[in-house]
């Protein structure tokens, strides 16, 4: 999001064989479906026929589209305990224009009507004991919406509690709706058709991130009957987060103690001493996204170890005989 907002996320829209590419992306979830005992239905037409039927070619930023697909599929598996997850790709007409629709439907826990209008707001989460994991940041769907908009499209949702949810993103075909300077037209007529493309990676690998997170769900999977059905809303917008940090009055100790030459993060100050590079930080947080994020930011300047909770942290300290200089821990 910060890259999108700072205008630093330069999308590159390439002519793409969307059916072939989508099939490659969603296939990554087959083993997850198997381990959860869910039926995974991939309803994607033959890519040659799909291409023939399109009135105009589809232009995608492969990296951004990958994030859309992985976010929606990953959510479907996170909130579905039995039944199926179905992915579909088809064409439709919106405002008299041809669009391609990528749809993910699940037979999961569903979302009650009062939450639907806020679902695409940043940091909006519905704390549910019915999810496979309580990890989350509430930015996944907001990001998907932003990325669909970047393709001239949008996202829609239909959902019913205890029945399931259907998320649809649609994008117009052709490139009239895209900023022309970011549209790449291959002179050779070559079309991009998969994740094997030798393209520059704009962000971290989504595949590793999403599949890695789901491994924890498999380990931690509780029994469905034990789950109490309880939903609370947590709406932590940026202002609230900033206010809470300010109220802790931590700004001076943080900038004094964390010193770095890193220009990658706005959180680190410019000062640096050589001794910092041998300092060891132990990150303790149960949220995989947060651990990965902090570790990526800090590892350029410090040695970093990660633990999922206090017990894990103590185990690592004892087993690896390490002496962290700083323990960075999320507390609730
Ligand atoms: P996160 O998963 O990090 O909480 P998201 O933006 O991806 O954030 O989702 C926001 C909220 O929408 C989630 O907290 C969850 O309650 C709900 N949600 C998203 N996808 C589904 C789904 N397929 N089924 C049920 N609820 C969902």
TrEMBL record:
Q: Which Gene3D superfamilies match?
A: 3.40.50.2300, Histidine kinase-like ATPase, C-terminal domain
Q: Name one Pfam family in it.
A: HATPase_c
Q: PANTHER family recorded for this chain?
A: HYBRID SIGNAL TRANSDUCTION HISTIDINE KINASE C (PTHR43547:SF2), TWO-COMPONENT HISTIDINE KINASE (PTHR43547)
The chain positions of domain Histidine kinase read 1-175
What's this protein's name? histidine kinase
Q: Which residues form the Response regulatory domain?
A: 280-332
Q: Quote the EC number.
A: 2.7.13.3
List the Gene Ontology MF annotations in alphabetical order: phosphorelay sensor kinase activity
Q: What is the organism of origin for this protein?
A: Ambispora gerdemannii
Q: Which domain of life is it from?
A: Eukaryota
Q: Mind telling me which InterPro entries this protein's record contains?
A: CheY-like_superfamily, HATPase_C_sf, HATPase_dom, His_kinase_dom, Sig_transdc_His_kin-like_C, Sig_transdc_resp-reg_receiver
Print the keywords alphabetically.
Answer: Kinase, Phosphoprotein, Transferase
Q: Which catalytic reaction applies to this protein?
A: ATP + protein L-histidine = ADP + protein N-phospho-L-histidine
């Amino acid at each position: 999001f910060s890259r999108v907002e700072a205008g630093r996320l330069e999308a590159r829209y390439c002519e793409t064989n969307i059916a072939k590419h989508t099939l490659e992306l969603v296939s990554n979830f087959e083993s997850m479906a198997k381990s959860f005992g869910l039926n995974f239905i991939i309803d994607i037409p033959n890519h040659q026929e799909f291409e023939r039927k399109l009135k105009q070619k589809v232009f995608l930023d492969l990296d951004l589209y990958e994030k859309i697909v992985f976010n929606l599929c990953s959510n479907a598996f996170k909130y579905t305990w039995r039944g199926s997850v179905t992915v579909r790709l088809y064409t439709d007409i919106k405002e008299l224009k041809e669009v391609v629709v990528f749809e993910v439907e699940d037979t999961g826990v569903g979302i009650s009507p009062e939450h639907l209008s806020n679902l695409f707001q940043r940091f909006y989460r519905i704390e549910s004991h019915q999810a496979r994991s309580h990890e989350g940041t509430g930015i996944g769907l907001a990001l998907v919406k932003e990325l669909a908009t970047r393709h001239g499209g949008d996202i829609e949702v239909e959902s019913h509690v205890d029945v399931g949810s259907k998320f649809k993103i649609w994008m117009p075909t052709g490139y009239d709706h895209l900023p022309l300077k970011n549209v790449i037209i291959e002179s050779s007529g070559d079309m991009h058709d998969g994740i094997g493309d030798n393209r520059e990676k704009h962000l971290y690998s989504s595949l590793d991130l999403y599949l890695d997170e789901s491994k924890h769900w498999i380990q931690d999977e509780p029994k469905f009957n034990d789950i109490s059905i309880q939903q609370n809303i947590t709406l932590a917008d940026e202002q609230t987060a900033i206010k809470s940090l300010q109220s802790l009055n931590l700004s001076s100790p943080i900038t004094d103690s964390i010193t770095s030459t890193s220009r990658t993060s706005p959180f680190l100050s410019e000062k640096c001493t050589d001794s910092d590079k041998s300092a060891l930080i132990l990150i303790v947080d149960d949220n995989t996204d947060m651990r990965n994020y902090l570790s990526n930011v800090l590892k350029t300047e410090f040695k970093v170890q990660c633990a999922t909770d206090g017990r894990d942290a103590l185990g690592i300290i004892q087993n690896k005989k390490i002496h962290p200089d700083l323990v960075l821990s999320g507390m609730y």
